[in-house]
Amino acid sequence: MTGRQFAAVAVGLGMVTLSACGSSGSSGSTGGSGGGSKTVTLVSHDSWAVSKSVLADFEKQSGYTVKVLKDGDAGQAVNKAILTKDNPQGDVFFGVDNTLLSRALDNGLFQSYRPKDYDTVASRYRADEAEHRVTPIDTGDICVNYDKKYFADHKLTPPADFDDLIKPEYKNLLVTENAATSSPGLGFLLGTAAKYGDGGWQDYWKKLKANGVKVVDGWEQAYDQEFSGSAGGRKAGGDRPLVVSYASSPPAEVIYADPRPKTAPTGVAQGTCFRQIEYAGLLSNARNTEGGKALLDFLLTEKFQQDMPLNMFVYPVRESAEVPADFVEYGPQAKDPETMAPDRIAASRDQWVKSWTSLVLK
To answer: Vertex 270, ends 156 and 360: CA angle to 5°?
Structure first.
């Protein structure tokens, strides 16, 4: 996710405008997040988005005004939150995913709170249940996307899995994000580690490098500038028909296009997916803890969970939440994504990133 910036796809297409950082604009705020304040501050990565009506309902019912501070890519936002944990920018942090979760927990970023609707969360997405420092909010799959037109024009079958990406016919076609600076880049690295194991992922990346993989800093550059299949990439003259993005990227290319195409112009290589889960938590030194708890409760409500797919292009974790038909049709979840236990990510992530950096970028 830069981090998981699904909403940026829509911005790149010029179809929607996200609310600006800062107050949601409701009246009655007392300013700040101090004791007794009716303002509650959410700190997030740049992909945060919610329908105005849904947020307005929460503010009306709770009596709190929501202020949103966006802090860039997911990894950047997490790191900044850790550095400012003794005097946090806000009350709730949204957007730490399973690739970076242990870093946040090990640094004491969150305090314990179990939201009212926690029991509605599918068990496969839960984490830290002994202490409840984080709450699952959404899930998605990091996968290679392909430009359908390119492969049709070149009479070439799109790659189906990791093994295909190192074949000669796909040389110089893939762009990915830096695993040290980008959430999808890190997820893609973890996907290869899950697939090939400790003894095989480095050899795989040597072959991928030899096959001309291009590495850029973040998702927005990769998807909206380098990738030939996205609206932004076509406008920018992108020449890479393969990009590390999300299984839910194709719906954005359909839903926000004008005129709307009958089918998505991009597809997903299902054998390259890694399951990502995003969490939110009450910051350890939050000044408005009651407001923060109310906001976390809101993030698990059916109304918010059903609002997420077409705003942040992610799947809800609440089992009863309904997903829009267009989203399911054009962005189905991967059937058999690579996964990795949080403790394995915690034990190996930093060393893997260090080795990857030395291997791929030098």
So the answer is: 80
Residues forming a β-bridge with 121:
318
Measure the CA–CA gap between 329 and 345, rounded to whole angstroms.
Answer: 32
The gap between the terminal CA atoms of the chain, to the nearest Å, is 23
Other beta carbons less than 10 A from residue 258's beta carbon: 8
* Amino acid identity, position 276: Q
Predicted pLDDT at 2: 36
Q: Report the candidate in 96, 61, 90, 60 with the shortest Cα–Cα distance to residue 77.
A: 96
Cβ(101)–Cβ(81) under 8 Å?
no
CA 69 to each of CA 113, 244, 316: distance values in angstroms, whole numbers, following the listed order: 21, 27, 22
* Token output for 309: 């797919």
Element (H, E) at 315: strand 315-316
Q: What angle do CA 305, 306, 310 make, to 5 degrees?
A: 110
- Give the per-residue pLDDT at 321: 97
Q: Closest Cα partner for 98 from 77, 69, 74?
A: 74
How far is 169 from 315, CA to CA, in rounded Å? 33
What is the rounded CA–CA span in Å between residue 57 and residue 49?
15
Cβ neighbours for 342, distance < 8 A, ≥ 6 positions apart: 98, 101, 102, 127
Q: What is the pLDDT of residues 6-46, one digit of tens each?
A: 444 443 333 332 333 333 433 333 344 445 689 999 999 98
pLDDT score for 192? 98
Rounded to whole angstroms, the Cα distance separating 248 from 240 reads 19
The token duo for 282 is: 């009450």
Identify the bridge partners of residue 69 per DSSP, sorted by sequence position.
43
